[in-house]
Specification:
Blueprint lengths: L6 E2 L2 E4 L2 E4 L3 E2 L9 E5 L6 E6 L5 H4 L5 E3 L4 E8 L2 E6 L7 E6 L14 E6 L2 E4 L2 E7 L6 H5 L10 E5 L16 E9 L5 E10 L1 E7 L17 E3 L19 E3 L5 E9 L5 E8 L17 E5 L7 E7 L2 E6 L4 E4 L6 E2 L7 E4 L5 E4 L1
Antiparallel strand pairs: 1-4, 2-3, 5-6, 6-9, 7-10, 8-9, 10-11, 12-22, 13-14, 13-15, 15-20, 15-22, 16-19, 16-21, 17-18, 17-20, 23-24, 24-27, 25-26, 25-28
The structure holds calcium ion (3 copies).
Length: 360
């Protein structure tokens, strides 16, 4: 608006008396706030809503101002002046919803247009993604400070779907302190061989790999002890033997899905976490290794479509399943599901009795 930012004085005249006020600056905000974007959650239990300008914080913290068809909005948490995290009832992967916003206003008091609607699709298992979660306001520099906190592992403050195992995709400038972080991703090599994993971290970090392709027991000290541990900050990949940041060689098979998790803990100053790998025999120096390329990674993120078993045909004593999605799972009781390692669609199964299949 043209009068925005001008300086004014107020002149009051009464009979022969005139009073002149001090100078005031006139701020006119004639722009209504908008919902600029929404992002899903890698855990399928939240929605991150971003507004177009600084908002009245009380108004965006009121959970009753948000409705989502098919989901309950549980708690609205203000992350900053333009962003709010809505925790929701558990979302189905890859399902379409509409967020309807009412009653929120910008910092100047302009209300959003009534029944502002934004369509979104919940995150589903997609290729090329790492989940990155952040727990804020946890002191200490040891990974145990994160793991032992009551808000770990179910209540991260922030989560992101990013392209590789590199915290600086999101956290730049070393400005965030007293937090813990976690990467999770499914890893599927295209070459069978022995791999070394490289971990960079600040302050401290640990890396685990589950050969069964599941995160269910990823932190079990017996089943999945850490394959690399950093007890002092190292912002770059080091050669084997310098510190605990490089795993022993681990045999992996092409086409098999593994579960990879890194935890790190930042107290203050600089922060980072990165994970790389190298086939034994590859001469690339540790310092020059990239983080694990996205083509080998998959996790919950945007842009996916709902995974489905599409057809089941029987011939010659065998059944053939075609499906969409990246992972086929089988079960004998519809309760316990096991990843069918190496499966790609169409997938043919020999007669083995009654078995159920689902795609993810
Ligand atoms: Ca405004
Ligand atoms: Ca920091
Ligand atoms: Ca630090």
């Amino acid at each position: 608006m043209s009068s925005d930012g001008i300086s004014i004085r107020c002149v009051v005249t009464s009979g022969a008396n005139t009073a002149i006020s001090g100078v005031a600056t006139l701020n006119v905000d004639g722009t209504l706030p908008l919902v600029e974007g929404v992002n899903g959650s890698v855990n399928g239990n939240a929605l991150f809503v971003k507004f177009s300008e600084a908002m009245n914080l009380d108004s965006i913290a009121a959970d009753g101002n948000y409705k989502i068809n098919g989901l309950d909005v549980l708690v609205a948490t203000v992350l900053d002046a333009i962003t709010v995290r809505l925790s929701t009832s558990q979302q189905l992967g890859g399902s379409a919803h509409t967020l309807t916003v009412n009653g929120v206003s910008d910092a100047a008091g302009n209300a959003i247009a009534p029944n502002t609607k934004v369509e979104f699709v919940t995150y589903s298992l997609v290729n090329g993604v790492v989940g990155m979660e952040i727990w804020k306001n946890i002191g200490g520099g040891a990974v145990a400070d994160l793991r032992n906190n009551a808000r770990y592992a179910d209540a991260p403050d922030l989560d992101y779907a990013i392209a590789t195992l590199d915290s600086t995709i999101i956290l730049q400038g070393d400005t965030l302190n007293t937090f813990g972080g976690r990467f999770r991703t499914f890893l599927k090599p295209d070459t069978t061989g022995e791999y070394e994993f490289f971990l960079a971290g600040d302050d401290q970090a640990e890396l685990r790999l589950s050969l069964d392709g599941s995160f269910d027991n990823i932190e079990s000290p017996e089943a999945n002890p850490p394959i690399a541990v950093l007890t002092a900050a190292s912002a770059v990949f080091r050669d084997p033997g310098v510190n605990g940041s490089v795993s022993a060689p681990i045999a992996l098979e092409a086409g098999v899905t593994y579960a990879l998790q890194a935890l790190w803990k930042e107290s203050n100053g600089s922060e980072i976490c990165k994970v790389g790998w190298r086939l034994v025999g590859d001469p690339t120096p540790a310092l020059e290794l990239p983080t694990i390329p996205s083509q080998f990674l998959s996790y919950y993120g945007p842009g996916g479509t709902t995974a489905n078993v599409q057809t089941i045909t029987a011939a010659g004593g065998q059944a053939t399943i075609t499906y969409t999605g990246t992972t086929l799972e089988s079960s004998t009781d519809l309760v316990t599901w096991t990843v069918v390692t190496g499966a790609t669609s169409p997938y043919t199964i020999a007669a083995t009795g009654t078995r159920f299949y689902r795609a993810r």
